[in-house]
């Protein structure tokens, strides 16, 4: 029950601070842009938009959330309760993944309607959001202010945007396939073309490895963050 209560609290907190309103507006702007584009560009542009924005919104939002909760001294009361760090991380990841899935699904649903396969699309958005939200918490645990988070975030995530080189046919080194974001692009493109079982196995396996690694790093970084910056 405490996990559900914490998840509900996060959803309400995000709603109250305008996250849903902000992404409703962003989604409307993206839909308008895509509907006005020539049909030949819509598929590739919509994939690019989902890859670079709604799927990774958790990274940027969670940094602000963690630092805002620190400033509001929420951790001082939250973690004297039976809430564990694991519960906190899971709640943050899932609540922001819900927002990413809702925003992305609305954009794709309005623009493409029933002309896409939503299974690889939803897998891509879900796994991408989980991974980047964990990265966002990891970075937030290492900085002191929102400005510092925003200044350092591009350097923190730029390597994960390298698969765009392959997406735009600029380069296709085999090492890109070790990155989880290469798997995201394969799954998103698979929403318009058929994927093999091997494609699904590759994408999910790569993501599970990266998400596990990111979770371990984030857990211990956040534990140290609480000990040195919140309860010191």
UniProtKB/TrEMBL annotation:
Transmembrane stretches, start-end: 20-41, 47-68, 89-112, 118-141, 148-171, 200-222
Pfam families documented for this protein: FLQE3_permease
Record keywords, A-Z: Membrane, Transmembrane, Transmembrane helix
Top-level taxonomic group: Bacteria
Name used for this protein in its record: Fluoroquinolone transport system permease protein
Origin species: Gracilibacillus orientalis
């Amino acid at each position: 029950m405490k996990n559900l209560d914490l998840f509900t609290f996060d959803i309400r907190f995000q709603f109250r601070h305008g996250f849903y309103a902000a992404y409703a507006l962003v989604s409307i702007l993206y839909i308008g842009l895509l509907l006005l584009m020539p049909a030949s560009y819509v598929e590739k542009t919509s994939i690019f938009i989902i890859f670079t924005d709604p799927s990774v919104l958790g990274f940027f939002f969670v940094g602000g959330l963690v630092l805002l909760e620190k400033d509001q001294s929420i951790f001082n009361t939250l973690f004297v309760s039976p809430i564990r760090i694991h519960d906190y991380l899971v709640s943050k990841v899932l609540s922001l993944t819900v927002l990413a899935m809702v925003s992305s699904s609305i954009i794709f649903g309005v623009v493409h309607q029933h002309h896409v396969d939503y299974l690889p699309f939803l897998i891509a958005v879900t796994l991408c959001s989980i991974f980047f939200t964990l990265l966002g918490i990891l970075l937030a645990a290492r900085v002191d202010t929102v400005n510092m988070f925003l200044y350092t975030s591009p350097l923190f995530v730029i390597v994960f945007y390298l698969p765009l080189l392959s997406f735009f046919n600029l380069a296709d080194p085999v090492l890109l396939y070790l990155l989880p974001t290469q798997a995201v692009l394969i799954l998103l493109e698979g929403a318009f073309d058929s994927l093999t079982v091997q494609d699904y196995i590759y994408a999910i396996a790569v993501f599970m490895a990266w998400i596990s690694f990111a979770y371990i790093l984030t857990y211990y970084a956040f534990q140290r963050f609480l000990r040195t910056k919140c309860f010191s």
